[in-house]
Design goal:
With about 270 residues, the protein is an all-alpha fold. It is built from ten helices and no strands.
Length: about 270
């Protein structure tokens, strides 16, 4: 009882407000990334010598667009995802503590792993080295390092990032289906986006699936952001506050498992 009373006295409103703003910023970044992608289409992501040279030339001509097309948006989105996932855990923890905790753990581990593999600034630096190389040996070294950076990005780390964040996002979104704080539309959009997201790995149709996943993801961000900002004004989920009453529905059972790159909860490659 003492721990429950202490939990009700804690003020999480600042976290809810930060997470709500983060959700809206993430939604807006999807459109920014899409606009950059359409205006300056990037080279291929396969770690070949030809693609690496094209990336170096692309960075020389469009430095900022090059960083965006190597998923700068996903780096920013991963930073924003930290307060967002934490706030969702706090808001949903009474729906199903075990499953929501697993969802948070998967999402945060996947998000942390992404920072180590994103090649945007590494490729920018290598493109500068390639451009000023004094001889063929230095150019070959920069080219080999660029291929390695692309290979790492196309490898296990990125696959695990997508799978872990999508799994975490699906679990948290499934919990929303049983929460009055978020509603079934937000939960359904989150589940759909996260189930579709790993489809980007499929040959031929992967790009289309990744793009389609962005549509429910944008809706999810907006609805979740609105709900979290409301919690930020009213108080902690599960407690009664002055004015309008916000009360979470508590259930002892786990939610049913029903996020071109996409995150997350995040944009798609």
């Amino acid at each position: 009882m003492e721990s429950a009373d202490l939990d009700n006295r804690l003020d999480w409103r600042s976290l809810y407000r930060v997470a709500g703003v983060a959700a809206f910023v993430s939604a807006a970044l999807i459109f920014v990334a899409g606009a950059v992608f359409m205006t300056w289409p990037p080279p291929g992501f396969e770690p070949t010598a030809a693609n690496t040279r094209e990336w170096f030339a692309f960075f020389e001509a469009h430095r900022l667009a090059g960083i965006f097309n190597l998923d700068l948006v996903m780096v920013v989105d991963s930073v924003l995802a930290v307060p967002l996932f934490l706030a969702l855990f706090l808001a949903l923890r009474r729906v199903s503590p075990s499953w929501v905790t697993l969802g948070l753990a998967a999402a945060l581990v996947g998000t942390a792993g992404y920072f180590a593999i994103n090649p945007a600034f590494s490729m920018l630096t290598l493109s500068d080295q390639y451009a000023v190389a004094a001889n063929e040996a230095e150019r070959a070294a920069a080219l080999a390092a660029g291929q390695t950076a692309l290979a790492i990005y196309k490898g296990t780390g990125f696959d695990l990032y997508i799978l872990l964040v999508s799994t975490g996002g699906a679990i948290l979104s499934a919990a929303m289906l049983r929460s009055k704080l978020f509603g079934k539309v937000a939960g359904s959009c989150g589940v759909l986006a996260n189930v579709l997201n790993p489809g980007m790995f499929l040959p031929v149709v992967g790009f289309a699936i990744g793009f389609i996943a962005l549509l429910p993801l944008v809706v999810w961000y907006v609805l979740v952001g609105r709900a979290l900002l409301t919690l930020g004004r009213e108080g902690t989920a599960g407690s009664r506050t002055t004015g309008r009453v916000t009360q979470e529905v508590v259930s002892p059972t786990a939610p049913t498992r029903s996020f071109v790159h996409s995150s997350q909860v995040g944009p798609a490659r």
